[in-house]
Amino acid sequence: MKKNNPHTPIMIREALQTEPKVYARYEFGKEKMESLMGLDEKAIESKVTELVKTEI
């Protein structure tokens, strides 16, 4: 993901026994979280794209 989006700030943290999640932060302190549990690579990419295109 970071390789394909060099100008987008992406932080990845690895942890054991933790539900995989993605967070998006928007203007004015708005934040949205989506679970990635059980998703394959393509579905994760779709979730991230959806968050990027979301207008809040």
Keywords:
globular; Glutaredoxin; electron transport; 56 residues; alpha+beta; 23% helix; two-stranded antiparallel ribbon
Molecular structure report:
The chain is α+β, with helices and mostly antiparallel strands. The chain has one domain: Glutaredoxin (3-Layer(aba) Sandwich), CATH 3.40.30. A two-stranded antiparallel sheet has the order 1-2. The chain has one helix spanning 41-53; strands at 21-25, 31-35.
Series of H and E elements: EEH
| Whole-angstrom Rg | 12 Å
State the CATH class.
Alpha Beta
How are the strands of the biggest sheet laid out side by side?
1-2
The helical percent reads 10-25%
Helix run count: 1
Q: Give the CA-based shape.
A: globular
Q: Structural class, from helix and strand content?
A: alpha+beta
Number of domains: 1
Secondary-structure arrangement, i.e. CATH architecture:
3-Layer(aba) Sandwich
Low-confidence parts: none
> Hey, roughly how much beta strand do the residues contain?
15-25%
Put the structure in a nutshell:
Helix content is 23%, strand content 18%. The protein has one helix at residues 41-53; strands at 21-25, 31-35. A hairpin with a 5-residue loop joins strand 1 and strand 2 (31-35).
Give the helix/strand layout.
Blueprint: E1 21-25, E2 31-35, H1 41-53
Antiparallel strand pairs: 1-2
Domain Ribosomal protein/NADH dehydrogenase: 1-55
Subcellular location: Mitochondrion inner membrane
Protein name: NADH-ubiquinone oxidoreductase 10.5 kDa subunit
